[in-house]
Amino acid sequence: MQQNVSLKPYNTFGIDVDAEYFTALHNISQLPALSAAGITRHVLGGGSNILLTGPVKGIVIHNQLKGITVEKEDIDYMWLRAQSGELWHDVVMYAIEAGLGGIENLALIPGTVGAAPIQNIGAYGVEVKDTIETVDAWLWDEQKVQTFTNTECCFGYRDSVFKHSLKDKTLITAVVFKLSKHPVYNTSYGAISDELASLGVTEPTVKAIAHAVMNIRRSKLPDPKVIGNAGSFFKNPTIPTTQYETLLVHHPDMPHYAVSPGQVKVPAGWLIERCGWKGYKKGFIGVHARQALVLVNYGNARGVDIWQLSGEIVASVHERFGIELEREVGVW
Known about the structure:
By secondary structure, the chain is α+β, with helices and mostly antiparallel strands. The protein folds into 3 domains: 2-63, 2-Layer Sandwich (Uridine Diphospho-n-acetylenolpyruvylglucosamine Reductase, domain 2), CATH 3.30.43; 68-180, Uridine Diphospho-n-acetylenolpyruvylglucosamine Reductase, domain 3; 228-331, Uridine Diphospho-n-acetylenolpyruvylglucosamine Reductase, domain 1 (Alpha-Beta Complex). It has helices at 88-97, 115-119, 192-198, 206-220, 241-250, 268-274, 303-321, and strands at 2-6, 18-25, 41-44, 50-51, 56-63, 68-73, 77-83, 122-123, 126-127, 132-139, 144-149, 170-180, 228-232, 238-240, 257-260, 263-265, 281-282, 285-287, 294-297, 330-331. It has a 5-stranded antiparallel β-sheet with strand order 6-7-12-10-11, covered by helices on one side. The chain has a 4-stranded mixed β-sheet with strand order 1-2-5-3, with no helix packed on it. Strands 13-19-18-17 form a 4-stranded antiparallel β-sheet, covered by helices on one side. Strand 15 and strand 16 (263-265) form a beta hairpin. The mean pLDDT is 96.
């Protein structure tokens, strides 16, 4: 246990604030000692989906639980158990090298395995919920590990039970993924088909699709090692079809895609760009020049300033389109 540790190296925004206490978690045998009542705990994985707005009180637990193993397999599927401190992209690469399909569209998403079910990470027409079999989580109050089925996780768009009734009550220790030995490829979303064509790929494979996805992500999103950011800061809003049709009268080029009868999803990046925020810069904060969804730290930004900027963006989108953006990034 360390005191007054800078969290700058542990968050992709690169915000320099201190943790009152800091410890690394390497084994679940450490968890009972961290379960004392009255202690404020913050679980930190890759730090790629948080914004630190001030000194963090209590204990920051840096998840370093490691390991990827084969749980079981049959003629059609293989079940991989990944410890929650593993980097998500490493698990994707492990699956690809084994020829397993299901998560190749999620290549290069930053963060750790433990965050994947909490956030129900998704990209290019795929959500991780479609491959998760079970989630193991340490219950702080009960001081035991409990296994949650896919159904019990209550997955939604960038959502799960771990953001609601189980928020701050658990630490995810491992996730089991059910991956296919006979993949069905999803190449229709975004520019995957075009990128595959530019790579000269005529017969898709999990490796080729992952390669295409990584190329697309690198072309659109800034590298946190170069410019501090947490990827997409906002969720794509879902609105009633009737509202979309009304907006279409004044904004005939507004993109969308149907998500359910009577509802469509509108790209938040498009809305933000139309409000003039793309490429905005003031001091050390700004909106990325290539992707309006991404707020950035150009050097020594404060988390509170980035949060204020996000509020100004939310207000301007609501004023122009009547749509309320929801932040995707968590705040400490």
